[in-house]
Design goal:
Radius of gyration: 24 Å
CATH class of the domain at 64-125: Mainly Alpha
Structural class: alpha+beta
Shape: elongated
Strand order of the largest sheet: 2-1-5
Helix content: 10-25%
Largest sheet: 3 strands, antiparallel
Length: 171
Protein backbone atom coordinates (compact mmCIF):
# COMPACT_ATOMS: atom_id res chain seq x y z
CA UNK A 1 0.00 0.00 0.00
CA UNK A 2 1.26 3.51 -0.79
CA UNK A 3 0.22 7.02 0.14
CA UNK A 4 0.87 10.30 -1.62
CA UNK A 5 3.03 12.88 0.11
CA UNK A 6 1.36 16.26 -0.38
CA UNK A 7 3.79 19.15 -0.58
CA UNK A 8 1.39 22.07 -0.48
CA UNK A 9 2.88 25.20 1.17
CA UNK A 10 0.31 25.27 3.99
CA UNK A 11 0.83 21.76 5.43
CA UNK A 12 4.39 21.35 4.11
CA UNK A 13 4.25 17.52 4.13
CA UNK A 14 1.14 15.42 4.69
CA UNK A 15 0.31 11.88 3.60
CA UNK A 16 -2.96 11.22 1.81
CA UNK A 17 -4.60 7.95 0.86
CA UNK A 18 -6.09 7.58 -2.62
CA UNK A 19 -9.61 8.93 -1.85
CA UNK A 20 -8.07 11.97 -0.11
CA UNK A 21 -5.65 12.50 -3.03
CA UNK A 22 -8.51 12.17 -5.52
CA UNK A 23 -10.47 14.86 -3.65
CA UNK A 24 -7.34 17.06 -3.41
CA UNK A 25 -6.85 16.67 -7.17
CA UNK A 26 -10.31 18.03 -8.02
CA UNK A 27 -9.28 21.56 -6.96
CA UNK A 28 -5.90 21.46 -8.67
CA UNK A 29 -5.46 23.53 -11.83
CA UNK A 30 -1.94 22.58 -12.97
CA UNK A 31 -1.07 20.66 -16.10
CA UNK A 32 0.19 17.48 -14.40
CA UNK A 33 -3.19 15.75 -14.33
CA UNK A 34 -4.40 12.40 -15.65
CA UNK A 35 -8.01 12.19 -16.74
CA UNK A 36 -10.20 9.18 -16.04
CA UNK A 37 -13.77 8.55 -17.15
CA UNK A 38 -15.20 10.18 -14.01
CA UNK A 39 -12.50 12.42 -12.58
CA UNK A 40 -9.09 14.05 -12.83
CA UNK A 41 -6.12 12.86 -10.74
CA UNK A 42 -3.02 14.90 -10.10
CA UNK A 43 0.19 12.97 -10.80
CA UNK A 44 1.95 12.62 -7.44
CA UNK A 45 5.55 13.76 -7.15
CA UNK A 46 6.33 11.82 -3.98
CA UNK A 47 4.79 8.63 -2.63
CA UNK A 48 5.59 6.69 0.50
CA UNK A 49 5.26 2.93 0.83
CA UNK A 50 3.25 1.92 3.88
CA UNK A 51 4.14 -1.75 3.45
CA UNK A 52 7.21 -3.19 1.80
CA UNK A 53 8.06 -6.79 0.99
CA UNK A 54 11.36 -6.72 -0.92
CA UNK A 55 13.00 -5.39 -4.04
CA UNK A 56 12.75 -7.69 -7.02
CA UNK A 57 16.04 -9.16 -8.19
CA UNK A 58 17.09 -7.21 -11.23
CA UNK A 59 20.11 -7.64 -13.44
CA UNK A 60 21.65 -4.84 -15.43
CA UNK A 61 20.91 -5.40 -19.12
CA UNK A 62 24.02 -6.17 -21.15
CA UNK A 63 24.02 -3.42 -23.77
CA UNK A 64 26.47 -1.06 -25.44
CA UNK A 65 25.05 1.86 -23.43
CA UNK A 66 25.49 0.04 -20.11
CA UNK A 67 29.05 -1.04 -20.92
CA UNK A 68 29.89 2.61 -21.65
CA UNK A 69 28.27 3.60 -18.35
CA UNK A 70 30.08 0.89 -16.40
CA UNK A 71 33.43 2.01 -17.84
CA UNK A 72 32.51 5.72 -17.48
CA UNK A 73 33.13 6.42 -21.18
CA UNK A 74 36.81 5.75 -20.53
CA UNK A 75 39.11 3.67 -22.70
CA UNK A 76 40.13 0.79 -20.48
CA UNK A 77 43.61 0.73 -22.03
CA UNK A 78 44.80 4.36 -22.23
CA UNK A 79 42.49 5.81 -19.55
CA UNK A 80 41.20 8.74 -21.64
CA UNK A 81 37.51 9.73 -21.65
CA UNK A 82 35.75 9.93 -25.01
CA UNK A 83 32.36 10.67 -26.51
CA UNK A 84 30.34 7.55 -27.30
CA UNK A 85 30.90 8.03 -31.02
CA UNK A 86 34.64 7.71 -30.46
CA UNK A 87 34.47 4.48 -28.43
CA UNK A 88 34.43 0.82 -29.45
CA UNK A 89 33.69 -2.31 -27.53
CA UNK A 90 36.71 -4.59 -27.29
CA UNK A 91 36.75 -8.29 -26.46
CA UNK A 92 39.63 -8.71 -24.00
CA UNK A 93 39.94 -12.33 -25.12
CA UNK A 94 39.23 -12.06 -28.86
CA UNK A 95 36.18 -13.93 -30.14
CA UNK A 96 38.18 -16.07 -32.55
CA UNK A 97 40.21 -17.29 -29.56
CA UNK A 98 37.08 -18.35 -27.70
CA UNK A 99 36.19 -15.03 -26.07
CA UNK A 100 32.54 -14.55 -25.27
CA UNK A 101 30.46 -11.40 -25.58
CA UNK A 102 29.84 -11.02 -21.84
CA UNK A 103 30.21 -8.42 -19.11
CA UNK A 104 33.43 -10.13 -18.02
CA UNK A 105 35.10 -10.01 -21.47
CA UNK A 106 33.96 -6.71 -23.06
CA UNK A 107 35.42 -3.26 -22.30
CA UNK A 108 35.32 0.25 -23.76
CA UNK A 109 38.27 1.16 -25.90
CA UNK A 110 39.14 4.08 -28.11
CA UNK A 111 39.70 3.45 -31.82
CA UNK A 112 43.46 3.92 -31.47
CA UNK A 113 43.83 1.37 -28.63
CA UNK A 114 41.45 -1.09 -30.25
CA UNK A 115 43.47 -0.96 -33.49
CA UNK A 116 46.75 -1.30 -31.58
CA UNK A 117 45.50 -4.34 -29.62
CA UNK A 118 44.04 -5.96 -32.69
CA UNK A 119 43.38 -9.67 -32.38
CA UNK A 120 45.70 -10.19 -29.41
CA UNK A 121 45.48 -10.44 -25.67
CA UNK A 122 46.32 -7.20 -23.86
CA UNK A 123 49.70 -8.45 -22.60
CA UNK A 124 50.63 -9.62 -26.11
CA UNK A 125 50.14 -6.04 -27.32
CA UNK A 126 52.05 -4.64 -24.30
CA UNK A 127 48.81 -3.12 -22.97
CA UNK A 128 47.16 -3.30 -19.55
CA UNK A 129 43.53 -3.02 -18.54
CA UNK A 130 42.70 -0.26 -16.06
CA UNK A 131 40.11 -2.52 -14.40
CA UNK A 132 39.12 -6.12 -14.80
CA UNK A 133 35.69 -6.09 -16.46
CA UNK A 134 32.82 -7.44 -14.36
CA UNK A 135 29.05 -7.57 -14.29
CA UNK A 136 27.71 -4.44 -12.57
CA UNK A 137 25.43 -4.85 -9.60
CA UNK A 138 22.04 -3.18 -9.69
CA UNK A 139 21.00 -0.99 -6.81
CA UNK A 140 17.69 0.88 -6.66
CA UNK A 141 19.35 4.26 -6.17
CA UNK A 142 22.04 3.72 -8.78
CA UNK A 143 19.66 4.89 -11.48
CA UNK A 144 18.74 7.99 -9.53
CA UNK A 145 21.03 11.01 -9.68
CA UNK A 146 19.53 14.08 -8.05
CA UNK A 147 19.92 17.02 -10.34
CA UNK A 148 18.03 19.95 -11.82
CA UNK A 149 15.75 17.64 -13.83
CA UNK A 150 14.15 16.34 -10.60
CA UNK A 151 11.55 18.16 -8.56
CA UNK A 152 13.00 20.12 -5.64
CA UNK A 153 10.40 18.60 -3.27
CA UNK A 154 12.33 15.29 -3.47
CA UNK A 155 15.51 16.78 -2.02
CA UNK A 156 14.49 16.24 1.62
CA UNK A 157 13.82 12.57 0.94
CA UNK A 158 16.82 11.63 -1.19
CA UNK A 159 19.61 14.04 -0.29
CA UNK A 160 22.55 12.02 1.00
CA UNK A 161 23.28 14.46 3.81
CA UNK A 162 19.69 14.08 5.04
CA UNK A 163 20.13 10.31 5.41
CA UNK A 164 23.57 10.51 7.00
CA UNK A 165 22.77 13.02 9.78
CA UNK A 166 23.27 11.46 13.18
CA UNK A 167 19.97 11.14 15.00
CA UNK A 168 19.70 11.80 18.72
CA UNK A 169 17.05 12.10 21.39
CA UNK A 170 15.12 15.36 21.31
CA UNK A 171 15.83 17.33 24.46
Amino acid sequence: MAQVVSTDPVNEYATLDFPQWLQHSQHYTGSDLVGTVTSRVRIPKIIVLRAFDRLPKKDVKFSRHNVFERDRHTCQYCGLRFERTELNLDHVLPRDRGGQTTWENVVCSCVRCNTRKGNRLPHEANMRLLRVPCRPRWHPLSAFAFGPQHDASWRKFVDVSFWQVELGDAA
